[in-house]
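cache lookup: miss for this entity combination. No prior model stored, computing from scratch. Input as submitted by user K.M.:
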Amino acid sequence: MAHEATHDHHDHHGAPSGFFQRWVMSTNHKDIGTLYLIFSLTMFFIGGAFAMVIRAELFKPGMQLVQPYFFNEMTTMHALVMIFGAIMPSFVGLANWMIPLMVGAPDMALPRMNNLSFWIMPFAFILLLSTLFMPGGGPAGGWTMYPPLSLQGESIAYTIFAIHLMGISSIMGAINIIATILNMRAPGMDLLKMPVFVWSWLITAFLLIAVMPVLAGAVTMLLTDKYFHTNFFNAAGGGDPVLFQHIFWFFGHPEVYIMILPAFGIISEIIPTFARKPIFGYRAMVFAIASIAFLSFIVWAHHMFAVGLPMGAEIFFMYATMLIAVPTGVKVFNWVSTMWGGSMTFETPMLFSIAFVILFTIGGFSGLMLALAPADFQYHDTYFVVAHFHYVLVTGAAFSIMAAAYYWLPKWSGHMYSETWGKIHFWSSVISVNVLFFPQHFLGLAGMPRRIPDYNVAFANFNMISSIGGFWFGASQLIFLGVVIHCVFFSKKKAADRSWEGAKGLEWTVPSPAPFHTFDVPPVIHDDELAHGNTEH
Amino acid sequence: MTSGGIGRSVSTWAAGAAALLGGTAAWANPVPNQLNMTKGVSEWSPYAMHMVALWVCVVIGVVVFGAMFIAMFRFRKSRGAVAEKWSHSTKLEIVWTVVPVIILIFLAHLATGGLTTFADTTGSEMTIKVTGYQWKWRYDYVDYKGKGVNQVGFMSKLEETSDRTRQLRSNLDPEKIQVDGYPTYLLDVDKPLVVPVGVKIRFIIVGGDVIHSWWVPALGWKMDAIPGIANSAWTKIKEPGVYRGQCAELCGQDHGFMPIVVKAVPRAEFEQWLASQEDAAKVEKAAQTAQAAPAPAPQG
């Protein structure tokens, strides 16, 4: 398992040989990155299993499989597990693996904290998932935990403690990423020569530090309302249930961008590689990410158009939300322009990236429609919203993570994955995910509320189609698991150091698989070798 | 329902599509295979706003995805494409920043107009208080034409057949629950809210325990029912009919089972109904006072 450093002349240690020593006590950014990725893949399948229960119950009208309360536990847990267990940790895993390699650093700036921030996560999720086996069941008030409903649940203390742990983990991860990027870049790796992925994570890390404490505060207020007789959100005691929603979404909206900005970064690395052409408008791309991050702090109440806000507030939040379309549009136009005039090939990472651009944009369109407050009075809390956020989170964030996995697997494992099976996985996923989520737009517009376990027969056909797409999409992800396992353990095809013909950037200058220690001596930077080194704009 | 649902209803596709393409015969309640939002039956409707936004998105989508597919076809390595070196164009970047801004200003203008009329509950001739409970609605008639309504209020909850059918593994067929040929499974109540057409009605919406949301798609909006907050909204229904909706904010285990039915009737018929309800309330109250003579029971 241990890869001796082969690229320099120092005599120094490789990976520890004991399993416990190597994985549990690890301070190595690559091993911790691997742990994060394995953890998030596990959570992806657990959260996916919950989604299968949801789609199975919604397969046809009438209650066939589960009690309504358990259905609510499933929707709540599906969201919490997918957001905090699958999407966020996988981006942190990618950051761990790739940021030091991309900026020419020997490791993360704070390796021991890195270990701690990972090893908190399994405990947080054991706590959260254990509630499903307790009398009274798991949280069933939705992942948004709106009081007073969430306070009726008996497992709220477990949920809150789990969220505190996840928050601590995220904040430590974010601190580590900022410290690494700002302090450990190789000489010559100027901020405006960094890969867009690194930029996107730098900005995301600041968002995390800004909003995770806000979430912690909100859930702590829930905890004291439930057990210590405070009345923050209790109208009968002079509190205000809407206050929670303001605090929650002040966290929640930046959180949405925490889950998409690193995806923008990944796509901005992959498209230039397979178009064999530098990214179009590098500086505009970085500036667009920063603008989106800023705007994310002033749009939170667009999640609350139906709570009866004063008209002035509705107008402000509507305008601010619509503004986000501008930098997001710039990003999409720039990706298309990067392809224009290129010399494109369509390996699996590129396929996922192209699907990302198209399907994320569809999610962006429904987002623009949702931003229009009068129309939102209809869309709000319907399947139209469900379709919207699954387009941006599944075909957006999750597709970008799969693209990244295919793109960097050769660097991580030293082997090429099976291109045939990668493409089968892609086509199976991209077709089924649209069968799954596109009909949900129609359901929402026709009047089906979200978070209901049963529905009128008028909604039957599209629900059945959606469920079929859901089972198919779920099954397709087993192909992904197979491709990854095959690539890591069984693939005979050695990966070159520069695994892709058009790949640029420091990560492709080290051997494949990347040795246990890289860049002990800062690399000499040649601008031409950087992904965006000679981009003047 | 059997698994033949998709095959059986090919004909209803046609109905849904016809409705989508916009005959005047708008459908107010969900129909099978419905693709689009209802135009609604109220004076205020977000339908036009929705369609404008939808078409704006479709046009932008066609342009952007069209360019992408042309690029993917023309600039393939397998077709011998050689990568160009350029990576910047100030002119283009200004164009695709400014053009979206102009489109957004246009949309914002429309939406602001819609919001302004929505927020204006003045000039209403009638007030109804809606209270959300786990898991039923309460309706109280507060005033009508400037006169207080005396003691007209009632609970409205899921009707019994739906309630039996929706029990886990009841083996009862949801398709069988129909009113006038319309499938009303989970969309019918024991006692509907009766309102007059052609009258601007102000709703005061509150939550009794947790947050609910009162939503009838045909009226064009939903409004959260929150404990401790009195929200208001209005409607002016144009045509008589029965309009169905559901609770739209997760409110616990039976969130999916607290429908809303609004029965809009001509003004004269409504006035008659209201008078009969007031009389009934009087009779009931008299009976109760007689029964509990020493200490009259408080009326809720």
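stored under new cache key. Chain B touches chain A through 106 residues (CB under 8 Å).
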